[in-house]
Amino acid sequence: MPALPNSHEALLRNREYLRGRLAVLGPLDIAVVPALAESGLVMTEHYGLWERLQNLAGWAVAFGYDDPALTPAAADTIVVFLPKARAELALRLELARWLAANGARLILVGEKKEGIAGAVKQLKAMAPAAVKLDSARHCQVWQADDLQPAETFDVHQWLEWHPVDCGGIRFEVAGLPGIFSAGELDTGTAMLLESLADYPLTQGPVLDFACGAGVIGTWLQLYQRSNGQSAAPVDGLDVQSQAVICARSTYQRAQVSGAITASDGLSRIEGKYASVLSNPPFHTGIRTDTSMTEQFLQQVKEHLEPGGELRLVANSFLPYEELIRRHIGPVKVIAGDRRFTVWSARRH
Fold first, then answer.
1. CA dist list (Å): 255 to 19, 124, 212, 219
2. Of the candidates 31, 67, 47, the residue with the CA atom closest to the CA atom of residue 267
3. Bridge partner list, 284
4. d(Cα 265, Cα 258) in Å, to the nearest integer?
5. In which domain, by residue range, is 319 found?
6. E strands of the chain, at which residues?
7. Is 156 strand, coil or helix?
């Protein structure tokens, strides 16, 4: 078996502290799951990991914080892996309390570079008697017994609403802990939106890849309406559960249309689009990782109509121009500065 992340190895060193019905929240590598127990509940926010977890016999699998597989008082031990966004830890700990049976045990594990020291302060605020079990592989493993169960849990109650104002179009966007750029319009997306005003899209169906909270699809439809144009639905897809929840909520509040789909890459998308838009992520955890975008560029041509346009914004230092040219067709820069570039390419 390939080497597991350090936090997973640290947990395996302490598996004797796992007892009764087990719930595992947020593993980065699913290989750790069957090594912990023969059965249990595992939750991941990543759709690709959720798909692969379906192959595990004996385990109930949940995609994100609103999956019906999550039920109250269902676990005697809850393992919480430290999420990459600190704000999400409070959400994950509250879910753990709701999953906890009477007398349940919580195990928190994470790497020092991920911020486990600060996370322990959050844990102790909830469970003052928490104790450190182990320090290994630059990680810490903490245990809190007799977890106080939560009576209710509804991720939609954690939604926060933030105003977006760009090009005279104003609306509210939903945010949840752990979602990219929650609460503000990031500079790259703003540049992409401005390019849509300066260089309008061809009429036809639109796809927003890695849609996040649904900002691009919402803005585009409201902008088209404000200019007396017919607004085509903008479908969105994202690999993360919180993003899917937020995008659907943003669309609903703004009264715009389009299907929001959970998908790892383009695997769940059928049909072709006149335009595909994206401000794709380039981080996995705390390291740069462009593999998802590279895979997207290899596949997206099959989902573009002949002559259809890919319009993508990214940090200017990322090596996307040659990939776009190779996989889509002639590419040009339509907006940019030292930090961000908007590329446009049309399918051959």
1. 47, 42, 17, 11
2. 47
3. 287
4. 18
5. 159-346
6. 22-25, 40-44, 59-63, 75-81, 100-111, 131-136, 139-144, 160-166, 169-175, 206-209, 234-238, 260-262, 273-278, 283-284, 287-288, 304-315, 331-336, 340-346
7. helix
Q: Which residues contact 316 (CB under 8 A, 6 or more apart)?
A: 336, 337, 338, 339, 340, 341
172 with 247, same domain: the answer is yes
Number of domains within the chain: 2
> To 5 degrees, how large is the angle CA 272–CA 312–CA 28?
90
pLDDT for 100 equals 98
Tell which residue, 348, 301, 296, has the closest CA to residue 320.
296
- Does one domain contain both 170 and 304? yes
- Chunked into runs of 10 residues, the chain (348 residues) has average pLDDT values of 88 97 97 96 97 95 98 98 93 98 97 94 96 94 96 96 95 91 82 96 95 97 94 95 97 98 93 94 52 85 95 92 92 95 93
Distance CA 232, CA 171 (A): 18
In the chain, which ranges are continuous DSSP H helix?
6-12, 32-36, 47-53, 86-99, 116-126, 187-198, 215-226, 241-254, 291-299, 320-327
Q: Is 1 domain-assigned?
A: no
Distances in Å between the Cα of 282 and the Cα atoms of 56, 91, 286, 298 are: 29, 24, 10, 16
8-state DSSP, 145: -
Which CATH number do you get for residue 257?
Answer: 3.40.50.150
| Same domain membership, residue 340 and residue 210 | yes
